[in-house]
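User: Reviewer 2 asked us to show a designed sequence for the structure in our supplementary figure. I'm pasting the structure tokens here. Could you produce the per-position amino acids so we can include them in the response letter?
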């Protein structure tokens, strides 16, 4: 073929390709919005498949059991070891609390005694024990005269935190008994002091030793809320420091300080202070006001995280706080957790400026950041909040449960409030390795948001709830968790000790622990119709003195379905 013919053919091919491109561009311009819509629909569909964030979960109940006696049993701590065994601690005044291989098998005559129990992964009791001393002073003529004939509630022991290693169980708590087991009282002892302790047991329930928290400057003491082991001879303390007035008036309340401290364990189990840090915030009158719900503590290799609530003398408004420290106690950052009231022209400007009452009850720390939760009385919202349900300022605001996520640098990333048309509170939370957030608490709302619920009806004045949240804080599973009012057996319809119809039962004080396949929930409830399965203890006994029943501990375990797709 001649060269000019080749050039002509190439030119014709070029023109045909150019025409096709031109036609294609006209089509794209004409139908661009339709094509873009199809693209975005496809993209969003693809993302929902890749980010399995919105798939509801369907856990089922493995076992559920009561654990308690015929008086009052309260749970304050729950942990699970690497083999799935469960440890529960709290306080009780039940003479017939289930005992097995007990270090102390008899409850004292007065007040509340601490208890510690270990259960197998399938909910069977392995060992349990009381821990308590006598309170003769509290029932003396002098004491009754001082308090107008009643010293009720002034004497107790309890366990409020549990830590587990591969060799031992450590239970931290408090006591003001005259003769608490194994206490040395190396410092001056007074009956107004709460003596905090950490008791060590083997994994088989054998008592090893007890560590008594130190006194401070001979006129104060540490009240343990939480602790972490740093090394074999160093532990991190979180709680309160109480110092009595200089005038020696022990009947006055004294001063409370929020406190973290590094404690050294020396010879003869003697505990001394390496360093101590008083926690102060603008909302706590320089840290001198003692009304707090809890001080939560988390420690890793580099940092110490604390979460607590403070309120001042001036405005009596509770504010949540999260702090981060170095291992040497230097404050790196702090973040307040506050819900602001929405502006309302019908009320005074001064009322519009008030911060809502916000209190932190729970904290969980993981790779995703720091999560805190609790309760707020607010018609407003937390920063970066989702699913707010109130508007306007009312005299009687409902309580709302909330969850807030912070970065490890203290920036608030996201938050959400949740619940129904009545009151909610978040009591505990846990993170698993899949990034799911497990939340438990109480609600009295008949319209609490449910997802694949196991129990879909609220029975109680205050019933428990369980929720599993995705990394974006969306509900993947949620259910009520409680019982109906106390059932009266047909053979004893006239007995006076059963609960009156108008007195509705409650389920409160819930704790939750989770892994990649299952989760545990514990708390206390005062009904006898709690959902049970393979129960170690199948009844919640009535109170002997004739006023219904008192709270018993419960423990429930749930497992995800095999076809549940986790994020």
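Assistant: Here is a per-position design you can include in the supplement:
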């Amino acid at each position: 073929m001649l060269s000019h013919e080749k050039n002509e053919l190439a030119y014709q091919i070029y023109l045909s390709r150019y025409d096709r491109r031109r036609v294609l561009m006209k089509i794209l311009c004409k139908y661009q919005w339709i094509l873009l819509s199809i693209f975005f629909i496809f993209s969003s569909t693809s993302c929902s498949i890749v980010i399995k964030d919105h798939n509801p979960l369907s856990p089922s109940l493995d076992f559920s059991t009561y654990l308690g006696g015929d008086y009052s049993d309260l749970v304050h701590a729950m942990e699970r070891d690497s083999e799935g065994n469960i440890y529960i601690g709290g306080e009780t005044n039940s003479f017939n609390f289930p005992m097995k291989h007990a270090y102390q098998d008899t409850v004292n005559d007065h007040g509340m005694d601490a208890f510690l129990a270990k259960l197998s992964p399938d909910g069977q009791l392995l060992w349990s024990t009381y821990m308590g001393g006598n309170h003769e002073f509290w029932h003396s003529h002098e004491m009754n005269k001082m308090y107008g004939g009643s010293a009720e509630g002034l004497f107790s022991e309890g366990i409020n935190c549990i830590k587990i290693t591969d060799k031992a169980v450590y239970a931290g708590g408090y006591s003001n008994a005259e003769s608490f087991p194994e206490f040395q009282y190396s410092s001056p002892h007074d009956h107004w002091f709460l003596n905090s302790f950490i008791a060590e047991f083997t994994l088989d329930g054998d008592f090893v030793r007890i560590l008594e928290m130190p006194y401070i400057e001979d006129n104060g003491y540490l009240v343990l809320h939480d602790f972490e082991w740093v090394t074999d001879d160093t532990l991190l303390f979180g709680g309160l420091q109480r110092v009595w007035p200089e005038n020696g008036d022990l009947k006055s309340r004294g001063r409370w300080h929020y406190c973290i401290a590094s404690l050294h364990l020396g010879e003869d189990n003697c505990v001394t202070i390496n360093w101590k840090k008083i926690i102060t915030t603008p909302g706590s009158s320089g840290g001198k006001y003692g009304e707090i719900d809890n001080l939560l503590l988390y420690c890793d290799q580099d940092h110490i995280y604390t979460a607590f609530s403070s309120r001042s003398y001036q405005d009596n408004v509770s504010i949540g706080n999260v702090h981060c420290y170095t291992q040497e106690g230097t404050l790196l950052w702090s973040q307040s957790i506050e819900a602001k009231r929405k502006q309302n022209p019908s009320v005074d400007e001064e009322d519009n400026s008030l911060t809502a009452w916000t209190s932190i009850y729970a904290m969980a720390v993981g790779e995703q950041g720091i999560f805190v939760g609790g309760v707020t009385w607010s018609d407003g919202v937390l920063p970066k909040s989702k699913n707010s349900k109130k508007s306007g300022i009312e005299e009687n605001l409902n309580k709302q449960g909330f969850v807030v996520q912070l970065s490890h640098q203290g920036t608030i990333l996201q938050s959400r409030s949740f619940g129904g048309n009545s009151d909610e509170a978040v009591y505990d939370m846990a993170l698993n390795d899949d990034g799911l957030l497990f939340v438990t608490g109480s609600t009295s709302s008949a319209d609490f948001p449910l997802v694949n619920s196991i129990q879909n009806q609220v029975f109680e004045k205050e019933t428990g709830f369980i929720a599993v949240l995705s990394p974006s804080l969306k509900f993947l599973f949620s259910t009520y968790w409680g019982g109906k009012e106390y059932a009266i057996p047909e053979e004893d319809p006239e007995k006076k000790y059963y609960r009156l119809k108008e007195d509705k039962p409650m389920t409160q004080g819930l704790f939750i622990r989770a892994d990649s396949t299952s989760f545990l929930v514990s708390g206390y409830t005062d009904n006898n119709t709690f959902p049970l399965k393979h129960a170690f203890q199948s009844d919640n006994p009535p109170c002997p003195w004739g006023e219904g029943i008192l709270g018993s501990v419960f423990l429930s375990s749930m497992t995800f379905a095999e076809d549940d797709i986790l994020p």
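For the response letter, you might also mention the following. The longest helix spans residues 3-30. Helices lie at 3-30, 32-50, 141-146, 349-352.
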